[in-house]
């Protein structure tokens, strides 16, 4: 059984928001660690929560990674929240404006199962 898909919007309940923040912060830091080990890369992760408390993770020395970042002059990939939403929506819809194939397959399988249920009953 899969997990329920959640709506990515601000969590209104303060307690639930704090619990989610703590769990996802740990998950994000774990993913950063895994990426640094598996791909032999340097990672610096800086998080400020809603009350401006600082959390950080660095695969090596944070100061060295930040110095390297500030001295970096080459063009590089940079993403914002709106970029991530746009890419996610683009992956969901193809050029014709139709929902991606995996979503269509799910819809057709669900429709077919309802059809079979009606025939058999």
From TrEMBL:
<keyword id="KW-0238">DNA-binding</keyword>
<feature type="domain" description="MADS-box">
    <location>
        <begin position="1"/>
        <end position="61"/>
    </location>
</feature>
<dbReference type="GO" id="GO:0000978">
    <property type="term" value="F:RNA polymerase II cis-regulatory region sequence-specific DNA binding"/>
</dbReference>
<keyword id="KW-0010">Activator</keyword>
<dbReference type="GO" id="GO:0042826">
    <property type="term" value="F:histone deacetylase binding"/>
</dbReference>
<dbReference type="InterPro" id="IPR036879">
    <property type="entry name" value="TF_MADSbox_sf"/>
</dbReference>
<dbReference type="GO" id="GO:0045944">
    <property type="term" value="P:positive regulation of transcription by RNA polymerase II"/>
</dbReference>
<keyword id="KW-0805">Transcription regulation</keyword>
<dbReference type="GO" id="GO:0030154">
    <property type="term" value="P:cell differentiation"/>
</dbReference>
<dbReference type="GO" id="GO:0005634">
    <property type="term" value="C:nucleus"/>
</dbReference>
<dbReference type="InterPro" id="IPR002100">
    <property type="entry name" value="TF_MADSbox"/>
</dbReference>
<dbReference type="GO" id="GO:0046983">
    <property type="term" value="F:protein dimerization activity"/>
</dbReference>
<keyword id="KW-0539">Nucleus</keyword>
<protein>
    <submittedName>
        <fullName>Myocyte enhancer factor 2aa</fullName>
    </submittedName>
</protein>
<dbReference type="InterPro" id="IPR033896">
    <property type="entry name" value="MEF2-like_N"/>
</dbReference>
<dbReference type="Pfam" id="PF00319">
    <property type="entry name" value="SRF-TF"/>
</dbReference>
<dbReference type="GO" id="GO:0000981">
    <property type="term" value="F:DNA-binding transcription factor activity, RNA polymerase II-specific"/>
</dbReference>
<keyword id="KW-0804">Transcription</keyword>
